[in-house]
Structure formats: structure tokens, C-alpha cells
Here is the input.
Amino acid sequence: MDQSLVSLSRWPFDKRLRSQGLAPLVRRSIETVQVNVGKVCNQACLHCHVEAGPKRTEQMSESVAFRVMQLFAESESAKVLDITGGAPELNSNFRYMVRRARELGREVIDRCNLTVLFEPGMEDLPEFLAEHSVRIVASLPCYSEGNVDAQRGKGTFHKSIDALKVLGALGYGRAGTGLVLDLVYNPGGAFLPPPQDTLEQHYRSELGAMGISFSSLLTLSNLPVNRFAQSLKRDGQLDGYMNLLCENFNPATVAGLMCLEQVSVSWDGGIYDCDFNQMLEMPSAVAGAAAPVSIMSLTSFEQLRTMPIKTGPHCFGCTAGAGSSCGGAIQTD
Here is the structure.
């Protein structure tokens, strides 16, 4: 577990849920299978909870990828394959997983950092994504060069804009094409995202002036996990940020938490309630299993249905303000 969170026991999330009559959290169904195919990435962003980067070597194997897709195909409830990383496109099994999910007639999400489009061997990636109608959820934490480069590295902003133009030329983000391009904003520091709808209008205005269209904007809070938690602790901001999250706890967001309808699979086949729990090494409870199981021993994703969700202080990040999930703000009105 991330040692920077060991001292956070004075922010018990379960206690807050109980005080609101919302405990325990129990998974309703398996609508989405989110798969983290590895920690290899062409970027090393300051806020990355995966601690991904060019020097990481963890990658999902062919056998694990095959088993994921076998269980995904057999599931009657799973409708969405959500592929993340690292840069998921750099994994050798990425295209197999996309093709198989689309053969099954199910939605595929690619959580793309945009600059990966310009990596060696990725020259045909935009066309591949468009051909298979993959929904792209792309990181763009601001519409200004300074803010983006500060979070994600010098030169990232212009590369990201170039990538958006390449995708736009194929029809991504344009009405009537069926090619969905969502952008993701996350704060550049220890504060909560602004209202999603308001910020989206600013994005549309600024990016529209550059000839860029997109489908929608998703605002995500930075959770105090791994690289971001370590930076907060180093700067003496960890306690203040946790207090901010706790003070802004919104019970109305709990029913919309992503963990209630999804499962997260790690690069080595571990089973988790969300990608954040995965990074904190908090495996899911599985029906009929006394110890953690992997995708290789799981008999069905339905084993995870109606099981309790494991929580921790980091969960305040998903329930603060308008809430935060892989689909953006939970409350948008």
C-alpha cells in the first residue's frame, strides 16, 4: 500500500458513510470492465496515480488478456470494455482486445494521452480507433500551454493539440459521425475541479478557436494516491487536501460511484473495485473466495456482483463536491 496514506486513518470514509446511513457500499452489477494493461507510458505526469512512465516495464501478458476477454464475452451484464494504462495503446494486446470487444458488439473506451499517436509504430493508430468506433477519453488538463506542460511535460500541449486535429480530421468529436471524443480535465494542484458544465464552455471556446471539436468534457478530482499523494506530502499539503475533500463530502454522489457497476483488472490479472484500489493493492472481495483471486481463477465476473466495496480515505476524492468518476462529475446540475 502507498505509505503516504498510512497516516490518513483519521479520515475514515466508512465512518462517514455510516453516519449518513449509506454503508455498506455494495456492487449492484458489472456494467463496465476496466482493464489496466500496464504501467508503460511515453509520459510521466505529475498527478499520475499509476506512477506510469517510460521506464516502467509492467505489461499485461497475452494469456491474461485472453482470459479477460473470455470472461467479458461470457458476461451477460458487461457492456463496456474500458482500457487504460499507462498508455494502453503501447501494450501488444491492445488491438486484440479492441477487435474482440467490437466483434461482441460492445462499447470500447480508450483512455488516451493523445501524444502516444506520435510514438513509433503508432502511425496507423488513429485510423484503427476510428475503424472500430472506439470511444476516446483523452487527457487534456487545460486549454493553455503553460498548465498542460507543467503537469505533463514540456511540449505536451502542442503535441496534444496536433493529435486532436488528426482525430478531428477522421470525424472524432464531430456531430453525426458516431466517433466520440471526450476530454478530461483534472486540477493542477490541491483543489477541486470547477463545475463541469461551465468549464466545458470555456474548453469549447478556446479549442474551437483552434479548429478543435470534442463530444464532452469530463472533470476528475485528483485522488491522494501514489505520485500525487507523495507530492502533497512533500509540499506539506496532504492534510489540507484531505480536509478539503472531507469538508466537501457530498452524500448525493454516493449512488453514482463508478465502483458500484464496474470491476478493475490489473496488468497481472488482479481483481479490484477500482483503478485507485488497484494502485493501493486493495483487492476485491469475491464470492466464494477466502483470499484474493486473479482473472485466471475467476469463473465469472458475476462472482463480484453484490459484493462489498473496499474503501479508504482516498474515496473522499470521489465524493467531494460534484463527485468524480471515470465518467466525469457525478452531479452535473
